[in-house]
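We modelled the chain as a single entity of 214 amino acids. Its sequence is:
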Amino acid sequence: MNNRLALLFLVILMQFSCDNTNNEKRLADQMKDAKKRETIFANIKKGWEFFDFPINETSEATISTWPQWKEFMAELAAKPSKKITDFQKKSKALTKKAMALNMNIPPQFDTPQIRSRIATLITQVQMLDLYINLNDISDKKVTKLVAEINIELVSLQRQMDKIVEKNKIPMEAGESELLQMIRDTSRAIPSGNSPMPISPVSPSNNINPNGVQR
């Protein structure tokens, strides 16, 4: 009887010991994960620095004439700070504001060069939203995308400024008329029609074989 009690006590003790070991391991893993999340959050918070201000007079002036540009820059300036879910919500808001940049583009900026840069910017913001909402967040990838978005923001604003400066250059005398003539001529010629053949000139009876008119 005593042997049975001793054996039962030993089994209970081993079970208790295993439970303690598992609990300690589980607690250690939880602390490790919490430390990892804390480090990721700190790195993202530190690297979440957008160029949320106009870099030239053209960009600053455009804020008053392009509401979507103004709203996007304002969204960039509002930096979250409390927890990672705030950054995740911010990335979704940035995606919506970036996609809206395709609307109401000022006529002088509605060019293939500007639209191409907007498309690239939208793609980068969407990628940021994707990576920051993964279960296993890569802080390095997130901060790299922030840097790439900043580069594209600078490129977009410089292209806007280049267009404005180009429009300030006066045309030389007669250049506008020449451009208008070229446009009118291109519209007047039917597309796909080949030039009419030139008929050979028949020899005149008034011209002798030596080429002298009679």
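As a brief sanity check on the tokenised model: Residues 14-168 form a domain with the Four Helix Bundle (Hemerythrin (Met), subunit A) fold (CATH 1.20.120). Residues 99 and 122 are 6 Å apart (CA to CA).
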